[in-house]
Specification:
Largest sheet: 7 strands, mixed
CATH architecture of the largest domain: Alpha-Beta Complex
Order of helices and strands: EEEHEEEEHEHEHEEHEHEHHEHE
Number of helices: 9
Distance between the termini: 15 Å
CATH class of the largest domain: Alpha Beta
Radius of gyration: 20 Å
CATH superfamily of the largest domain: Medium-chain alcohol dehydrogenases, catalytic domain
Structural class: alpha/beta
Strand content: 25-35%
CATH topology of the largest domain: Quinone Oxidoreductase, Chain A, domain 1
Number of strands: 15
Helix content: 25-40%
Shape: globular
Number of domains: 2
Length: 327
């Protein structure tokens, strides 16, 4: 038996709670992992609260991240005792995820835990930090360097945004953070933000083209915010889009793309190829300041997950939430 957060949907309604589950109920997979830490992401919040159509089959153990130790393996790349991490691949959506003490998974979904990180540190990074690194890689790959000008990060007090601010500032970029939480200004400056802007200036319909300002951008918000970021991008600016906190729509004009040559780059962390995952984790070892990682991380136990998910969806959680699944 092991403990897990379980989401159920039936005639009685949609609900999530802590349950005792028999090992025999674990889904198919060629690697069984004793989980030590997981995380609570925006997607997990949507799944647990039922505020988004994330879960595709029931019952479901949520949790798009996990770190732990291999208990049993039939996969050639892993053996008992190996330390591994998982991000994405539909876990917590179509396959039982990481908010549990045990997980059974496909070995192809796993990557080795970098030696430089403890399991807790790896989950403090989690999908949010790994996604932020993919965004930074995309900006660099498309020619955005610190000398080109300011880089804006929307949703900056969240998990992806916080990590993106920390990474970009350490790499020498001038980072402008956008947030709807003025009380987090000191927190964002501590991560390296040179300026903090109110999200209200971005969240309403704007002009097809605005004054050129951003050499690059990391957007986790979507909708009008993403449209306004694109409208204010500099000539040949690059916008990396990875989220939909404001909405899935994009009420934008083609003007920034055909008049300024702006590039809008989509960032997918769920099905990202293994080579790019390994590269992102390698860069996180080199480029993420461990002290900044501590500053953006809070820890909870498995018993606190459901209540914290409600707070997350209400916009009352900043940075990263690490879950110790054994308490």
């Amino acid at each position: 038996m092991f403990k897990a957060v379980l989401i159920e949907k039936d005639e009685a309604g949609y609900r999530a709670g802590l349950r005792e589950i028999d090992d025999a109920q674990l889904p198919e997979g060629d690697v069984t992992v004793d989980v030590t830490y997981s995380t609570l992401n925006y997607k997990d919040g949507l799944a647990i609260t039922g505020k988004g159509p994330v879960v595709r089959k029931f019952p479901m153990v949520p949790g798009i991240d996990l770190a732990g130790t291999v208990r049993e393996s039939r996969h050639p790349d892993y053996k008992a005792g190996d330390r591994v991490i998982l991000n994405g691949w539909g876990v917590g959506e179509t396959h039982w995820g990481g908010l549990a003490q045990v997980a059974r998974l496909k070995g192809d979904w796993l990557v080795p835990l970098p030696e430089a990180f403890t399991p807790r540190q790896a989950m403090a990074i989690g999908t949010a930090g790994y996604t932020a690194m993919l965004c930074v890689n995309a900006l660099e790959r498309h020619g955005v360097s610190p000398d080109k000008g300011e880089v804006v990060v929307t949703g900056a007090a969240g998990g992806v945004g916080s990590t993106a601010v920390a990474l970009l500032s350490r790499l020498g970029y001038t980072v402008v953070a956008v947030s709807g939480r003025p009380e987090e200004a000191d927190y964002l400056r501590g991560l390296g933000a040179a300026e903090i802007l109110d999200r209200a200036a971005f969240s309403q319909p704007g002009k097809p083209l605005a004054r050129e300002r951003w050499a690059g951008a990391v957007d986790v918000v979507g909708s009008h915010t993403l449209a306004n970021v694109c409208a204010a991008a500099k000539y040949r600016g690059v916008v990396a889009a990875c989220g939909l906190a404001q909405g899935m729509d994009l009420p934008a004009s083609v003007a920034p793309f055909i008049l300024r040559g702006v590039s809008l780059i989509g960032i997918d962390s769920v099905m990202c190829p293994r080579a790019e995952r390994l590269d992102a984790w390698g860069r996180l070892v080199r480029d993420l300041d461990p002290a900044k990682l501590d500053a953006i991380t809070d820890e909870i136990g498995l018993t606190d997950v459901v209540a914290t998910a409600e707070r997350l969806m209400a916009g009352r959680v900043r940075g990263r939430v690490v879950v110790d699944v054994n308490r």
